[in-house]
Specification:
Blueprint: E1 6-10, H1 16-20, H2 26-29, E2 45-52, E3 55-63, E4 77-85, H3 94-109, E5 115-121, H4 125-133, E6 137-145, E7 148-156
Parallel strand pairs: 4-5
Antiparallel strand pairs: 1-2, 2-3, 3-4, 5-7, 6-7
């Protein structure tokens, strides 16, 4: 199996058609949102596209908004939400490579950020394992989302 060539990129309109075609398995759709939900974003929200050989295969949002305060007391933290990998690209290590590159990407693109935080549903074991593999730690903080308890995880940048 060939290793995917994964790169993180800021959203561009040229990515939209591929993002609109994303499909997720039923067991994942309850935990995240498809990229086509984010055709409009507010100030402080940044759409990030995961490219594999220059083709959009994944997506997430980075927030530098007031919403971050629900997850961290650090004024320099950013919140990661809505990570999804198109079903056709799953199982190839794309998410792990993307999350491995995340800290360097944030350091370069958002130099004032020194912490990344996220919330993962307590039932979403696959996502929890992914985040642990790329050095996110359970903070002990809990928030409640539409389908129950979420673990707040954190990773230092820099």
């Amino acid at each position: 199996m060939s290793v995917p060539e994964v790169k993180l990129s800021h959203y561009s309109t040229e990515h939209q058609k591929a993002l609109d075609s994303f499909v997720l398995p039923e067991d994942q759709i309850k935990f995240t949102a498809l990229p086509n939900k984010y055709t409009e974003v507010e100030e402080g929200q940044h759409r990030i596209v995961i490219l594999n050989n220059s083709k959009p295969v994944g997506f997430f949002l980075l927030h530098a908004t007031a919403r971050v305060k629900d997850y961290s007391d650090n004024p320099k933290a950013m919140l990661l939400t809505s990570l999804s990998i198109n079903q056709a690209a799953q199982g190839k290590g794309v998410a792990k490579q993307a999350m491995t590159q995340l800290r360097e990407f944030v350091k370069r693109e958002f130099p004032s950020c020194d912490e990344l935080v996220l919330a993962v549903n307590h039932k979403n074991i696959a996502a929890q394992k992914l985040y642990e593999k790329v050095d996110f730690q359970d903070t002990g903080r809990r928030v409640y989302g539409p389908i129950g308890e979420q673990f707040v995880m954190s990773s230092e940048v820099g």
